[in-house]
Write a structure and sequence with these properties.
Elements: H1 7-23, H2 26-40, H3 44-48, H4 57-72, H5 74-84, H6 91-106, H7 112-124, H8 130-149, H9 159-165, H10 170-180, H11 182-192, E1 198-202, E2 216-218, E3 225-228, H12 233-242, E4 245-247, H13 253-259, E5 266-270, H14 276-285, E6 288-294, H15 300-307, E7 314-320, H16 327-333, E8 340-346, H17 361-364, H18 369-385, E9 388-398, H19 407-417, E10 421-429, H20 431-434, E11 439-446
Parallel strand pairs: 5-6, 5-8, 6-7, 8-9
Antiparallel strand pairs: 1-3, 1-4, 2-3, 9-11, 10-11
Helix pairs in contact: 2-4, 2-6, 4-6, 5-6, 5-8, 6-7, 6-8, 7-8, 9-10, 10-11, 18-19
C-alpha cells in the first residue's frame, strides 16, 4: 500500500475491489490483483483477503490458484514476455499476459494453448481497447510456442539456467549455491516451485479418539501434522471450526519441541502473532499459562482468536507491545510477570524457508535484506533475553534457512551476553531433507 494512502482512501479502494470481485469472473479478478501486486507491492496473501466474501468457493479457489501460480512462475513467464515484446504494455495487459502464461504452464488437453489465447482475448476486450486485446493475442501465441520449446534443466546445467527456469532471482540462487551446494539448491528450487498443500496439526484432547480421514496424510516423519488432499476444503473447514485441527506447517514443531513447555508452567511467547506456536504450546501443556506479545496490527486479531482456542486448563493472555521499546512495561501494565522460566521469540525474518507458501517473498528480498534482518534479530533476541529468569531458557526461532539469520545471530548474542547465556541445542529444517517448510530453532539457557 502506498504510504500516502489515507485509511479512508484504502477503505474506498477495498470497497471498489470487492464490488469488482462480485461482478467479474475469477480470471479478470486475478489479473487485477496481479496488477495491484506489481504496482503497489502488497503481499499476495493480503491481496487475496480483499476478494469479496460473496465469491463462490470454486471461484475463490481459482483466483488463489491463478494469482499464486502467476507470482510463483513470474520470472520464467516474464522472461519470455520481455523477449517477445519491443516495449512493455500497460500494467493491466502485462498482468493478463502473465496469468495466461501460468495457464499455459498448467497444461491441458489437445488445443489447450489455443483455448488460453481465445479466453485471454475474450476477457481482455471487456476491459481494454480492441488494439490492446489484439496485441495480447499475438503475444500469447508466441509465448505458447516459447514455453513449448523449453527444456527442463538437468543436473549439469548452469546456475543461471536453473534460476530462470525456476523463477528465482539469480543472486538468490547463487547465494544458496555457495551455502548449500549445487544439488541441494536444485532440490530447493524444485521444492519452492511445487504447489503447497494445506497443512494442519491434529490437536490433542477430546478429539484424539476421532478417526483421521483418508484425505489427510502424515507429513514426513511427524505424527500430528498432516497434508490435506485437494477438494476437501469444506470438510477441513469443519475440522478447523470444531478445533480438531490447526492450520500449521510441521516446521513450527522445531521451536516448540526445543522449548518443551511442561504442564503448570507459564510461557512467554514473543513476536507471537498469529499465534500458532502459542496454541501448540498450550495444547502440549494442557495446564498452565501462555502470555503472547506482539505489536498491535493486522495480525493481532488472529493472535487473539487462536488464544481463545487454548485448552480449558490454560490461561492465555494477549499483550500488545513493542519488545524493543517498553516490553517490560507492556507486561507490567497487564499485571503480568516481566521474567519467565520459558521464553520463545519467533523473530521476523527473510522467510527464505517458506517460499513454497510465500511465493512473493523471493521478489521482495534483496541481497542486503539478510544483513538488515540479522541486525534486528539480534536486538530482538537481546531484548527477549532480558525477560528470561535466572536458570530459565529461551528458544530463538526463524522460518529462514540462511546462516546469517540463524547460527550467526545466536553466536553474536552469546558474545553480547558475555556468558550469561549458553547454547544448549539447535535444530534446522531444510525442505529438501525434511519434506516440509524450512525453519531453525536454538535453545539457550540463562546461567
Amino acid at each position: 500500500m502506498a504510504a500516502r494512502d489515507s485509511p479512508g482512501m484504502v477503505r474506498r479502494m477495498n470497497r471498489v475491489e470487492k464490488k469488482q470481485s462480485r461482478e467479474e469472473g475469477a480470471w479478470i479478478v486475478s489479473v487485477r490483483l496481479l496488477e495491484r501486486w506489481r504496482e503497489q507491492e502488497e503481499r499476495v496473501d493480503w491481496l487475496l483477503e480483499t476478494v469479496s466474501a460473496e465469491t463462490s468457493r470454486v471461484e475463490r479457489a481459482r483466483i488463489h490458484a491463478l494469482l499464486v501460480g502467476a507470482v510463483r512462475h513470474l520470472g520464467r513467464i516474464d522472461g519470455h514476455l520481455t523477449r517477445l515484446m519491443a516495449r512493455p504494455p500497460r500494467p493491466l495487459v502485462w498482468a493478463a499476459l502473465v496469468v495466461a502464461g501460468f495457464e499455459l504452464l498448467e497444461g491441458g488437453s489437445e488445443g489447450h494453448s489455443a483455448r488460453v489465447g481465445h479466453h485471454l482475448v475474450d476477457q481482455l476486450k471487456r476491459v481494454v481497447t480492441a488494439k490492446e486485446a489484439g496485441f495480447a493475442n499475438a503475444v500469447v501465441r508466441k509465448l505458447a510456442t516459447a514455453i513449448e520449446a523449453e527444456a527442463m534443466p538437468t543436473a549439469g546445467d548452469s546456475m543461471v539456467i536453473w534460476s530462470r527456469y525456476h523463477s528465482h532471482p539469480d543472486w538468490m540462487v547463487q547465494r544458496w549455491w555457495e551455502q548449500f551446494g549445487e544439488k541441494a539448491t536444485q532440490e530447493l528450487l524444485q521444492w519452492n516451485q511445487s504447489p503447497a498443500p494445506v497443512l494442519v496439526r491434529w490437536r490433542p484432547g477430546s478429539t484424539e479418539d476421532l478417526i483421521k480421514p483418508e484425505w489427510l496424510h502424515p507429513v514426513a516423519e511427524t505424527t500430528d501434522f498432516f497434508a490435506a488432499d485437494p477438494g476437501h476444503w469444506a470438510e477441513l473447514a469443519e475440522f478447523i471450526e470444531a478445533g480438531t485441527v490447526q492450520v500449521q506447517d510441521a516446521a513450527t514443531r522445531l521451536a516448540v519441541d526445543l522449548l518443551n513447555p511442561i504442564a503448570g508452567e507459564t510461557v512467554l511467547d514473543l513476536c507471537a502473532a498469529p499465534g500458532g506456536k502459542s496454541l501448540a504450546m498450550a495444547d502440549r501443556m494442557q495446564q498452565g499459562a501462555v502470555v503472547a506479545m506482539d505489536l498491535m496490527g493486522r495480525r493481532m486479531p488472529r493472535l487473539e482468536e487462536n488464544l481463545r482456542r487454548v485448552p480449558a486448563g490454560i490461561t492465555a493472555t494477549a499483550v500488545a507491545g513493542d519488545l524493543l521499546r517498553g516490553g517490560a512495561r507492556a507486561l507490567a501494565a497487564k499485571e503480568l510477570p516481566t521474567e519467565y522460566s520459558a521464553v520463545l521469540v519467533d523473530v521476523p525474518c527473510s522467510n527464505s524457508g517458506v517460499m513454497r507458501h510465500r511465493v512473493d517473498v523471493k521478489w521482495r528480498l534483496k541481497p542486503e535484506s539478510f544483513r538488515r534482518h540479522a541486525l534486528q534479530q539480534l536486538d530482538l533476541l537481546t531484548a527477549a533475553g532480558e525477560r528470561v529468569a535466572e536458570g530459565g531458557r529461551i528458544v530463538y526461532s526463524t522460518c529462514s534457512i540462511d546462516p546469517e539469520e540463524n547460527g550467526q545471530v545466536v553466536a553474536a548474542f552469546e558474545r553480547r551476553s558475555r556468558g550469561a547465556f549458553e547454547l544448549v541445542d539447535s535444530r534446522i529444517s531444510y525442505p529438501w531433507e525434511t519434506g516440509h517448510d524450512g525453519a531453525a530453532a536454538f535453545l539457550l539457557r540463562r546461567v
